[in-house]
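In this supplementary section we document a worked example of the pipeline. Step one takes a protein sequence of length 96 as its only input; no multiple sequence alignment statistics are reported here. Step two produces a three-dimensional model, which step three serialises into structure tokens for compact storage. The input and output of this example are shown verbatim.
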Amino acid sequence: MKECKGCNYPLSVDQPEVPYTEEQIRKVFKSFDKNTDGQLSKAELQAAFAKLGAKWTSVRAWLSLWHADDNGDHFISLDNELDKLVDYVLKLGYTH
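The serialised model returned by step three reads:
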């Protein structure tokens, strides 16, 4: 919160951070399927994690592949693996 020098009140009121819902996380990841191939690459995962506010996007992308890439093709299928990815990301507690 910014303080006004010499004032007894803040310049702005901080809003409490609210956790992302399952649907919001799902929407974020789907929006980063930039080439519309129905799957998320590591680069697309990194961009999505950046949107969520992650600091180590490369690490998060790799870990999400480890948690949710059931067939080992190094992509997250929006049809078959997105639910598992969303479950993993919800546990990380991202807020907005």
